[in-house]
Amino acid sequence: MSTAETTAGTPAPAEEPGLKRVLGPKLLILFVIGDILGTGIYATTGKVAGKVGGALWLPFAIGFVVAILTAASYVELVGKYPKAAGAALYTQKAFKVPFLTFIVAFMVMCSGLSSASAAARAFSGDYLSELTGDALPPTLVAICFILLLAALNLRGVSESVKTNVVLTLVELTGLVIILAIGAWAVLNGDGEPSRLGEFEASGTGYALMTGVLGATALGFFAFVGFEDSVNMAEETKDPVRTFPRAIFIGVAVTGTIYVLVALVSSLLVDYKVLEGSSGPLLEVVKAGGVDFPHKLFALIALFAVTNSALINIMMASRLCYGMANERILPRGMARVLPTRRTPVVGIAFVTLLAIGLVSTGEIEGLGDTTSFLLLCVFAVVNIAVLVLRRDPVDHQHFRTPTVLPVLGALTALILASPLADRPADVYIRAGVLLAVGVGLWALNKVVLLVRSED
Questions:
Q1: Is the per-residue pLDDT at 250 higher than 50?
Q2: Over the chain, what is the mean pLDDT?
Q3: 260: buried, middle or exposed (CB in 10 Å: 19+, 13-18, 0-12)?
Q4: What is the pLDDT of residues 101-111, one digit of tens each?
Q5: Measured CA distances, 141 to 65, 118, 133, 136, 145 (Å)
Q6: Using CA atoms, how far apart are residues 317 and 155, in angstroms rounded to an integer?
Q7: Packed helices 45-52 and 280-287: angle between N→C axes, nearest 10 degrees
């Protein structure tokens, strides 16, 4: 139901103040890069190596291609419909099935929260231990971490995005350090180039294929984030012109960095060592033969995972705001603070969910859950962009070649399928989340029914 529609005979509710447009082109590019960079590359690189072996670069290269295909669909859709609800809005316009719209929106929100939970877990792992010297209670640290980010988010998008810019520059610096260490090692003849072609999966054919697909599905967690940026459409200046450049540059920059970092990691560190660490890039620094302070790099990595969690919490709250404006969630979810103009109810809601999720799994399981949920959503979005070609709008916007969303849908479905050889607990966690979503959908229908009868 459109926000303009009201029940017959019922006065239209007073409009909540709109979101503030503060993001220009440069800030949005840094925002997209910062949204993609972070937990995925800093914390799950070792787990990807455990699935594929020394050929660590391959899953990231495949993930790069899949990300570009789906990013093209998002660019077309945000240009046509520059609203905050993202995939939920596109699903509703394409298929006009409210239940499907809600499930897609709920999956997107949960993917952001599971990503933030993975980042919180990464924050309390080996990188923090390198600084403190002692293992602090990881769950308590993760919960406090989420609460602090929620407070920053509540203060305002301008403050949150400015913080994001600083953290993005810090985490980029960390990855540049890794690349510099790799270049130094190559020039000095260090490392084991033979590892770059080694696969962990035994045999060939089906076993090798599922091993690579499983590693790619987990590694795709490192690429998620560009889809979150479309939820900032109502806080972006001239979004129709700004988003295409920002998303494509963001995905290209991060994809290139990821492949290079994967090459360096495998060149310098055995995949079994990487697999056993929740701070795999710290292992690269230690093995690189360069006298770089380990504690300083650990601090940089903590900034990186903080950035991932901050943006995911921020995006989930904006998604709640957008869904509430579209009547997918109760209208109260769109309430904003009069002074700060931030979605206070949405922030409180997603923070509670994140605190719940942070206790349900470790980095690998939460990261794989994020990838699985978003791959399902990406398949729907790639189909939606083709369906919505029948819905022209009255302004110019980017149009992706038809073959890209077709390939995007196929690759997303393959990586979401059992061919990707993911653990059963990922499907169980996603199933439980969807069951919660169905319950919320039923509750929302009852609330709307009661209101219509009043």
A1: yes
A2: 84
A3: middle
A4: 889 988 988 89
A5: 36, 13, 15, 7, 6
A6: 13
A7: 80
* CA–CA separation, 128 and 134 (whole Å): 9
Which residues pair with residue 378 across a beta bridge? Answer: none
Longest dimension (CA), the chain: 79
- DSSP label at residue 362: -
What single-letter DSSP state applies at residue 56?
A: T
Q: Is 72 helix (H, G, I), strand (E, B) or coil?
A: helix
Cα dihedral angle (260, 65, 316, 149), rounded to 10 degrees? Answer: 0
The one-character DSSP state at 24 is -
Do residues 367 and 39 make contact, with C-beta atoms less than 8 angstroms apart?
Answer: yes
Q: Which amino acid appears at position 308 of this protein? A: S
b or e along 318-347 (b: 16 or more beta carbons within 10 Å of the residue's beta carbon)? Answer: bbbbbbbbbbbbbeebbbbeeeebbbbbbb
What angle separates helix 206-219 from helix 45-52, to the nearest 10 degrees?
180
Q: Where are the alpha helices (H) located in 220-343, listed in sequence order?
A: 239-268, 271-275, 280-287, 294-325
3-state helix, strand, coil in the chain (%, to 5): 75, 0, 25
Contact 33, 27 (CB under 8 A): no
Q: What is the pLDDT of residue 201?
A: 57
Instruction: Give dist(CA 272, CA 53) in Å, integer.
Output: 8
Which residues, in sequence order, are CB contacts of 378 under 8 Å at separation 6+? 70, 227, 408, 409, 412
* 373-122-184 Cα angle (round to 5): 110
Model confidence band, residue 11 (pLDDT cutoffs 50, 70, 90): very low
Q: What is the DSSP letter of 222?
A: G
Helix axes 363-387, 57-80, angle to 10 degrees: 40
Pairwise CA distance, residues 149 & 405, whole Å: 35
pLDDT band at residue 211 under the 50/70/90 scheme: confident
Phi, psi for residue 236 in degrees, rounded to 5: -115, 140
- The residue count of the chain comes to 454
Distance separating alpha carbons of residues 374 and 295, to the nearest angstrom = 34
Under a CB-based contact definition with an 8 Å cutoff, are residues 161 and 324 in contact? no
Q: How many CA atoms lie within 13 A of 219 on its CB side?
A: 35
Residue 346, SS3 per DSSP: helix
Q: How many CA atoms lie within 13 A of 254 on its CB side?
A: 37
